[in-house]
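Standup notes
- HV: blocked on the assembly model, inputs below
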Amino acid sequence: MPSDPLPEAGRPAAELLAELARLRDADLPVRGGQVTAYVYDTGREAVHDLAATAYQEMLEVNCLDPTAFPSIVALERRIVGAVAGKLGGGSGIFTSGGTESIMLAVKAARDARPVDGTPQIVLPATAHPAFHKAAHYLGLEVVHVPVDDAFRADPAATAAALTPRTVLVVASAPSYPQGVMDPVPEIAAIAASAGVPCHVDACVGGWVLPWLRDAGRDVPPFDLSVPGVTSLSCDLHKYGYSPKGASVVLFADESLRRHAYFASAEWPGYTVINAGVQSSKSAGPLGAAWATLMAVGARGYRELAESAMSAAERLAAGIAGIPGLRVLGEPAAPLVAVASSDPELDVFVVADEARARGWFFQPQLSYQGIPPNLHFTLTGVSDVDALLAALADAVKAARAAGPPDVPSDLVEALAGLDLDSLDDAGFAGLLASVGVDLAGGAEPEMAMVNAILDALPPATREALLIRFLSALYA
Ligand SMILES: Cc1ncc(COP(=O)(O)O)c(C=O)c1O
C-alpha cells in the first residue's frame, strides 16, 4: 500500500487497474464452483459479460429520484413484475439484497399494525440473522421458536409464541443453514388466524424453487399464493445469478408495501422519498439484474435450477459414502449441510484442509443443539465429482491431523474477558496468539478460531466478532 493514501497527482489508469488485480490475488475465485458459498456462477460467460456491460450502462444513474431518471422506474417495474409473476403476485420493491428486503418487510409490518409496547417478531432458530439485524435497527423484540429434528420451524411453538405485541411471523423457504423448507402453509395460517402478517424468507430459494417445480419436482407451496403469506423476499443476486446488489421484496397488499416507504419533508433541501433503506444509489445493479433475467430466460433458469439441484443430490449421495460425514436434514434447494459423525473428525479442520487444496467450504458453528457443520451452496457450475474427491481428501487429512487442540483455559478466559479493556491493537495481539494474523500473510488456520467460537455462547461470539471486524479495519 502506498504510504500516502491519496496521491497529490492522479495515478495512471493502467497502474491502478494492475493494483486492483493484485489486490484481488488473495480473494477467493468468483467463478468455477470451487467456492461453495457467497458466489453464484452460471457457467455462461456471455451472461456475466452482459450483466457487467448493463451495470456499466446504468452505473452513474442515481436511484434517488425516479422522476429525474424514469429508466429506473421502467426497469424496476419489469423486474418486480417478473418476480411477482413467478411467486404468487403482489407488488414490490427492488432492493440491494436480502438484508434490505427483510429490513423493509419488518418495517412495513411494524408500521402497518402498531401495538402497545415493544413490537415482537417471531423467528425460528434457523431464520437468517438479517431478521435479528432488522429487529435491532427497528426496535423490535425477537421471540425465538425452536426447529424440529429435521430443522423445520415448529408450527405449534410458533402459535404458542404469539402475543398481542406480535407484528410479524417468519418462515423460510428454505432456511440457509440446512436448505430445508419451513412448513409455510401451516405457519402462515397460524399467523392469519391471529391477524398477524407472515413473511416468507425466500431470499435463497425464491429464484430456484419455482423453476424446480416447473422442471417437474415436488415443491411445497411457499409463495404469496399461500393464504396468510403477506410478504416475501427473493434475492436475484443468489439463484437469479445477477451481480450483487439485487433482491426483491414482494407484498401481497399494496398498502403494506407503502408502509415500507419513507418520505421526509423535514428539512429545507430536495424532497426525500425512498422505497428502500438507501437514498442515493447506483442503478447499476438494477440494469444488470434486468439484463441477467432477460438473457437467461425461463428455460435457462429451469436448466440452471435443475443442474444445481441434481448436483446437490449427487453431493448428498456421495457424502453417504465418506465415513464420518452425514448430511443434516433433507434439502429442498441446492444447499447441503454436512456434519461429522465421528468425534475424531473435526469439520473445521476439514474446511482448512480443503482450503489448502483450493476449495472453500463454509463453516457453520453449532447452535441450539445443531452440530457444527460445513455448508455447500451448489450452482450451475458445481463439479460434484471434483468436489467429492476434494472433500474425501480433506477428510483423510483432517483425520490424520485430529481436532484442534483448544487450550482448556482459553475458552474460559475469553468468556470472562473484559473486551472494553482492549483496544484494536491489543485484540489483534490476542488473535495473533491463536494464529490469526490480521496483517495478512499466511492463510489463517481457522479451525482453531472456529473451535474456540464454537465453544462460546452466541452473545460472546458476537462480541468477539465485532472486535475482530474493528481490528481488521483499524
Ligand atoms: C435465507 C436467507 N435470507 C437472507 C439472506 C441475506 O441476504 P443478503 O446477504 O443478500 O443480505 C440470506 C443470505 O444468504 C439467506 O440465505
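- HV (later): unblocked. The pocket of pyridoxal-5'-phosphate is lined by residues 97-99, 128, 130, 172, 176, 201, 203-204, 235, 247 (CB under 6 Å). The chain has a mean pLDDT of 95.
- Next: hand off to the docking folks.
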